[in-house]
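Internal tracking record. Fields below are filled automatically when a chain is submitted to the structure queue. Please do not edit lines marked as system-generated. If the sequence contains nonstandard residues, flag them in the REMARKS field before resubmitting.
Queue: standard
Priority: normal
Entity type: single polypeptide chain
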Amino acid sequence: MILVSACLAGVETRYDATHRLNEKIRELVMSGRALPLCPEVMGGRKIPREPVEITGGTGRDVLSGRARIVDKKGGDHTAEIAAGVEDFVKAAKSMGVTAVILKEKSPACGVKKIHDGTFTGTLVAAPGLLAAALERENIKIYTEENFLELLEK
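SYSTEM-GENERATED OUTPUT FOLLOWS
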């Protein structure tokens, strides 16, 4: 089984109640080879919701308590997103998931790049919270940009 960011499968779970459908990822879900999940929604965040970014570091820093996930007004959403990430990781482990496909640029799901916490659209090379947590569990992570190599295996 493969887990995928729900928005990539066409589920309207993004902060603005939209999705980022990738047809090949939706095909994986429709064929039963993948399951869509959203760590932010799993943590209780509503749709639509205020966008958030990691301030003070990366997803790894959030894991260690050195950074936070906040909205533009400074509202702290670290605890609820961390709870959803924890549930996502538990689900992955209980299902024996060996690979996950995540949405780049997200503070939760970003793998290689996330927004820098200034809400200016600036990206930094760093993982989001879920990617960092999955990395710690040695679960292979792909993005919408490189997941085709997973299908070739």
